[in-house]
Amino acid sequence: QVQLQESGGGSVQSGGSLKLSCAASGDTRCMAWFRQAPGKEREGVATISTTGGTTYYADSVKGRFTISQDNAKNTLYLQMNSLKPEDTAMYYCAADFDYLWSLCSARTIFKYWGQGTQVTVSS
Fold this sequence. Notes:
The chain is mainly β. The protein has 1 helix and 11 strands; from the N terminus they run βββββββββαββ. Strands 2, 4, 5, 6, 9, 10 and 11 form a 7-stranded mixed beta sheet that branches. A 4-stranded antiparallel beta sheet has the order 1-3-8-7, with no helix packed on it. The longest helix is centred in the last third of the chain and has 6 residues, at about 100-105. It starts with a strand and ends with a strand.
Protein backbone atom coordinates (compact mmCIF):
# COMPACT_ATOMS: atom_id res chain seq x y z
CA GLN A 1 0.00 0.00 0.00
CA VAL A 2 1.40 3.37 -1.06
CA GLN A 3 -0.03 6.60 0.28
CA LEU A 4 0.32 9.82 -1.69
CA GLN A 5 0.01 13.33 -0.29
CA GLU A 6 -0.03 16.38 -2.53
CA SER A 7 0.85 19.90 -1.49
CA GLY A 8 1.73 23.24 -3.05
CA GLY A 9 -1.54 24.25 -4.63
CA GLY A 10 -2.89 27.77 -4.35
CA SER A 11 -4.14 30.82 -6.19
CA VAL A 12 -1.99 32.75 -8.65
CA GLN A 13 -2.49 35.26 -11.41
CA SER A 14 -2.15 34.38 -15.06
CA GLY A 15 1.50 34.07 -16.00
CA GLY A 16 2.52 33.04 -12.50
CA SER A 17 4.15 29.86 -11.24
CA LEU A 18 3.46 27.15 -8.70
CA LYS A 19 5.31 24.00 -7.70
CA LEU A 20 3.30 21.00 -6.60
CA SER A 21 4.78 18.21 -4.48
CA CYS A 22 3.60 14.65 -3.92
CA ALA A 23 5.12 12.68 -1.06
CA ALA A 24 4.90 8.91 -1.48
CA SER A 25 5.07 6.51 1.48
CA GLY A 26 6.94 3.86 -0.56
CA ASP A 27 8.78 3.11 -3.78
CA THR A 28 6.92 3.20 -7.07
CA ARG A 29 7.87 2.82 -10.74
CA CYS A 30 5.46 5.05 -12.63
CA MET A 31 4.07 8.33 -11.35
CA ALA A 32 1.89 10.98 -12.90
CA TRP A 33 -0.01 14.17 -12.38
CA PHE A 34 -3.65 14.45 -13.43
CA ARG A 35 -6.09 17.33 -13.16
CA GLN A 36 -9.83 17.73 -13.18
CA ALA A 37 -11.72 20.98 -13.59
CA PRO A 38 -15.39 21.31 -12.56
CA GLY A 39 -17.65 19.77 -15.18
CA LYS A 40 -14.74 18.31 -17.13
CA GLU A 41 -13.17 14.89 -17.41
CA ARG A 42 -9.96 14.06 -15.64
CA GLU A 43 -6.94 14.88 -17.80
CA GLY A 44 -3.46 13.42 -17.70
CA VAL A 45 -0.91 16.22 -17.36
CA ALA A 46 2.50 14.55 -17.10
CA THR A 47 4.00 11.13 -16.43
CA ILE A 48 7.45 10.02 -15.31
CA SER A 49 9.24 6.73 -14.97
CA THR A 50 10.75 6.84 -11.50
CA THR A 51 13.46 4.35 -12.52
CA GLY A 52 14.63 5.89 -15.78
CA GLY A 53 13.37 9.46 -15.56
CA THR A 54 11.61 9.34 -18.92
CA THR A 55 8.80 11.87 -19.11
CA TYR A 56 5.61 12.52 -21.04
CA TYR A 57 3.58 15.72 -21.22
CA ALA A 58 0.13 16.53 -22.48
CA ASP A 59 0.21 18.99 -25.38
CA SER A 60 -1.69 21.53 -23.29
CA VAL A 61 1.18 21.88 -20.81
CA LYS A 62 4.24 21.04 -22.90
CA GLY A 63 6.91 23.71 -22.54
CA ARG A 64 5.28 25.20 -19.44
CA PHE A 65 5.19 22.34 -16.91
CA THR A 66 8.05 20.12 -15.74
CA ILE A 67 7.62 16.83 -13.90
CA SER A 68 10.54 15.67 -11.76
CA GLN A 69 11.34 13.41 -8.85
CA ASP A 70 13.58 13.11 -5.84
CA ASN A 71 13.96 9.37 -5.31
CA ALA A 72 15.82 9.84 -2.03
CA LYS A 73 12.75 11.60 -0.66
CA ASN A 74 10.16 9.54 -2.58
CA THR A 75 8.74 12.84 -3.75
CA LEU A 76 7.26 13.81 -7.10
CA TYR A 77 7.12 17.42 -8.28
CA LEU A 78 5.29 19.44 -10.90
CA GLN A 79 6.78 22.85 -11.69
CA MET A 80 4.12 24.92 -13.40
CA ASN A 81 5.15 28.11 -15.18
CA SER A 82 3.26 30.57 -17.38
CA LEU A 83 0.02 29.47 -15.79
CA LYS A 84 -3.23 30.19 -17.60
CA PRO A 85 -6.81 30.40 -16.29
CA GLU A 86 -7.54 27.15 -18.14
CA ASP A 87 -5.00 25.41 -15.86
CA THR A 88 -7.42 25.91 -12.97
CA ALA A 89 -8.29 22.47 -11.60
CA MET A 90 -7.81 20.01 -8.79
CA TYR A 91 -4.44 18.35 -9.35
CA TYR A 92 -3.91 14.73 -8.36
CA CYS A 93 -0.79 12.65 -7.97
CA ALA A 94 -0.96 9.00 -9.05
CA ALA A 95 1.39 6.02 -8.81
CA ASP A 96 1.76 2.48 -10.07
CA PHE A 97 4.44 -0.16 -10.67
CA ASP A 98 4.98 -0.41 -14.44
CA TYR A 99 8.63 -1.14 -15.23
CA LEU A 100 8.12 -0.68 -18.96
CA TRP A 101 7.83 2.91 -20.17
CA SER A 102 5.42 1.83 -22.90
CA LEU A 103 2.98 0.74 -20.19
CA CYS A 104 3.65 3.63 -17.84
CA SER A 105 3.23 6.34 -20.47
CA ALA A 106 -0.07 4.88 -21.65
CA ARG A 107 -1.56 4.33 -18.21
CA THR A 108 -4.68 6.30 -17.30
CA ILE A 109 -5.88 4.15 -14.41
CA PHE A 110 -3.39 4.09 -11.56
CA LYS A 111 -3.41 1.92 -8.49
CA TYR A 112 -2.75 4.73 -6.00
CA TRP A 113 -4.09 8.28 -5.91
CA GLY A 114 -3.62 11.27 -3.68
CA GLN A 115 -6.41 13.46 -2.32
CA GLY A 116 -5.64 16.35 -4.65
CA THR A 117 -4.53 19.95 -4.31
CA GLN A 118 -6.42 22.90 -5.82
CA VAL A 119 -4.79 25.22 -8.32
CA THR A 120 -6.65 28.41 -9.25
CA VAL A 121 -5.35 30.80 -11.90
CA SER A 122 -7.03 34.17 -12.26
CA SER A 123 -6.87 36.36 -15.35
